[in-house]
Amino acid sequence: MTKIAFSEQAKNFPVNELKKWFEKNKRPLPWRDNPTPYSVWVSEVMLQQTRAEVVVNYFTQWMKKFPTIESLALAEEEDVIKLWEGLGYYSRARHLLEGARMVMNEFNGHIPDDAISLGQIRGLGPYTIHAILAFAFKRRAAAVDGNVLRVLSRMFLIETSIDLESTRTWISRIAQALLPHKSPEVIAEALIELGACICKKKPKCDLCPVRRSCGAWRENKQLVLPVRHARKKIVFLHRLVAIILYQGSLLVEKRGPKQMMAGLYEFPYSEIESEEALQDIEGFTKKMELYIGSTLQLYGALQEQRHAFTNHKVRLFSLIFTATSLPKLGELHLLSQIDLLAFSSGHKKIKDALLTYLNDAGKKSYRSVDEESCFFSIDKYYSFDGD
Questions:
Q1: CATH 3.30.950.10, applies to 8-218
Q2: Which of 141, 159, 357, 379 has its CA 20 to 30 A from that of 99?
Q3: How many Å apart are CA 165 and CA 210, to the nearest integer?
Q4: Confidence label for 12 from pLDDT (cuts 50, 70 and 90)
Q5: 291-317 pLDDT, tens digit each
Q6: Contact 159/137 with Cβ under 8 angstroms?
Q7: What would the pLDDT profile of 34-62 be if each residue is shown by its tens digit?
Q8: What is the DSSP secondary structure assignment for residue 141, as one 8-state letter?
Q9: Which residues does the UniProt record annotate as the domain HhH-GPD (predicted)?
């Protein structure tokens, strides 16, 4: 669509229909109640790469723990990361903390209400800046996220890749032009809601309140728009994980500042590349014994856990061992206090499964077992096939 054609169609965009639909159908999300610059900031950062239904509980707990930007600025990083545990992309939490401290030190504790000043704060990109201006300060600012890019590329038949900066700029101008001068934040949020609930990757066109104005709907191009660059190839990883118990404690490792999952706890693990390596429990045991400097006895196995980050998909196969002597590497933490530590998302799943397993297994005293008499059959749960 040419810019001249766009200008004509934008004038006829059914803003009122979209507004009515939004006011009737919008989800009751907690960050929509009495939004403040701080609560909008927190919610928008959490919503990056994460579904709204997942964010709800995290947001609620966060606002209880850190109800003001001052309370966040005074927090220890470990406490912040622990509260973020399970959301993934932990740099978001660190940037929130750094940004809060910057607001306290450089803006006298007040989140600024202009784009230039907001842009100086650590971790605030164009979308979050415009979201704060729109939803907290009620400014006429278009907050253009992936949902809005999808909606408007279909609505206005934009057939250039939305991964291009020029396309994003054009769509942002379209979104800005659609905002009325009265209550612009309603339409800004309605466009996001439309993309999140109706105009999805597989759109629900029959439910769309503005479909008759949609170019993609008229030309049956919903499934080919928006245009995207080729995605990075998915990398599949398979890891054998060693859960090592010693006298009521659990062996874990805290990742260093320059390592992946920096500052988070994980269990020792080894990359595996074949079915044979997966089934070589004896070889893996010896490798872990050399690594921690202690003899290990097999105790059991957990069901496989799956995890994804960036363009990686990870399968985690966990074996439980007891150490016969004090391990020389890693940190030992009492099982009763293990929930106080912040784990990476994949290893949090393992930790939660382990606590359930130990509770169900027994209330029995720890005892070593051989591979054949594991509580769980290794062959039953672990297969290298599939992704």
A1: no
A2: 141
A3: 27
A4: confident
A5: 999 999 999 999 999 988 888 899 999
A6: no
A7: 999 999 999 999 999 899 999 999 999 99
A8: -
A9: 46-197
Q: Which residues belong to CATH 1.10.340.30 in the chain?
A: 8-218
- Cα–Cα nearest to 184, from 127, 142, 145: 142
56: its two tokens: 């709800």
Count helices and strands (H / E) in the chain. 17, 8
Written as one letter, the residue type at 66 is F
Strand 312-323 with 235-246, pairing = parallel
- For 24, residues 6+ apart whose C-beta sits below 8 A from its C-beta are none
Distance of CA 255 to the CA centre of its chain: 19
* Gap between the Cα atoms of 157 and 217, Å rounded: 9
- What's the CATH architecture for 235-381? Alpha-Beta Complex (3.90)
Q: What does pLDDT average to over the chain?
A: 90
For Cα atoms 286, 308, 381, give the angle at the middle one, nearest 5 degrees.
50
Q: Which of 127, 101, 106, 107 is nearest to 115 (CA)?
A: 127
Q: What is the pTM of this model?
A: 0.80
Measured CA distances, 128 to 44, 100, 153 (Å): 6, 14, 21
Q: Reduced to 3 states, what is the DSSP secondary structure of residue 23?
A: helix
Q: Which residue in the block uniquely carries the two structure tokens 């629900």?
A: 204
- pLDDT of 166 over the 50 cut: yes
Of the chain, the end-to-end C-alpha distance in Å amounts to 40
